[in-house]
Automatic annotation (TrEMBL):
Pfam families: Glyco_hydro_25 (PF01183). The keyword Hydrolase applies. Keywords: Glycosidase, Hydrolase. It comes from the Bacteria. It comes from Weissella jogaejeotgali. One of its GO terms (biological process) is carbohydrate catabolic process. This is Phage lysin, glycosyl hydrolase, family 25. Belongs to the glycosyl hydrolase 25 family.
Length: 280
């Protein structure tokens, strides 16, 4: 099964999605480290009200992969788990190659547990070795047959070459010159290779938290070594590389160990705030 959709941005500020036939809509939200599309929220909200499948994407500029990812995340908090996430990797950003793209994708994944899609063209795929990226992330691939105005296509033109280590894209953008009833102007047209259930799986975190009723005190280390800022009762703050573990399998109860061996038990709330639990 396949689904037809469009991707839009601030270049379509007046589009009325209720008049345009589509199974899904992917909306540009941010660019670089300082631009937020002024129409993104309205476009996303209308799509959701119309019960369309929704995605959001960030347009990379090369301003810094991690900085761009954090900027993207800070502006889509309300849509995490509700919309497909994607990185638009083209233009000046492509000089950073797969390393840049993966740093962005990894940052989003580490923060959300959701694996974003990489949007790029087949020509960019053929410029680099993407194997390190394709092992972990899916492709939203772009390739056009021509600049002719066309509508939805169930079998878009292919040039017969492979999509590198990705094998094939999960979404194919096959024109930037699409024309659909209900909108006067060009539209990017896309084909999703799957159904609604397949789409929803792409929105879900694959970092599963398993609840346990056992009383064992065996700890399960989190596969990270982050840096935490810790404040004592007098407000003195220090930064330290720390190892943290879920205590008795409870993700919201954390044991933090500093390099000198000092241990703290903490609780973590839904915002990520850490509170020291006094040991008896």
């Amino acid at each position: 099964m396949t689904l037809n959709g469009i991707d839009i941005s601030n270049w379509q500020p007046d589009i009325d999605l209720s008049k345009v036939d589509s199974d899904f809509v992917i909306v540009k939200t941010t660019e670089g480290t300082d631009y937020v599309s002024p129409v993104a929220d309205a476009q996303i909200q209308q799509s959701m009200k119309l019960n369309k499948l929704v995605g959001v994407y960030h347009y990379a500029t090369g301003a810094g992969a991690i900085a761009e990812a954090k900027f993207f995340l800070s502006n889509i908090k309300g849509y995490i788990g509700k919309a497909l996430l994607a990185l638009d990797f083209e233009g000046e950003a492509i000089v950073g190659g797969p390393t840049y793209a993966k740093a962005f994708l990894d940052t989003v994944y580490q923060a959300t547990g959701i694996r974003p899609l990489l949007y790029t063209s087949k020509s960019v795929i053929n410029q680099y070795d993407w194997s390190a990226v394709s092992k972990e992330y899916d492709l939203w691939g772009a390739q056009y047959a021509s600049a002719a105005h066309i509508g939805y296509q169930s079998e878009p033109w292919e040039d017969g070459t492979a999509w590198g280590s990705f094998g094939k894209p999960v979404i194919r953008q096959y024109t930037g010159y699409g024309r659909l009833a209900g909108y006067v102007g060009n539209l990017d047209l896309d084909l999703f290779y799957g159904d609604a259930d397949s789409w929803h799986k792409l929105l879900q975190s694959d970092k599963q938290v398993h609840e346990t009723t056992t009383t064992t005190t065996t700890t399960n280390p989190v596969m990270e070594t982050p840096i935490f800022q810790y404040s004592d009762d007098n407000g003195n703050k220090t930064y330290a590389y720390t190892h943290w573990e879920a205590i008795a399998g409870k993700a919201k109860l954390i044991r933090l160990e500093s390099p000198n061996g000092t241990e703290f038990d903490l609780t973590v709330d839904d915002t990520g705030k850490l509170t020291v639990v006094k040991k008896e």
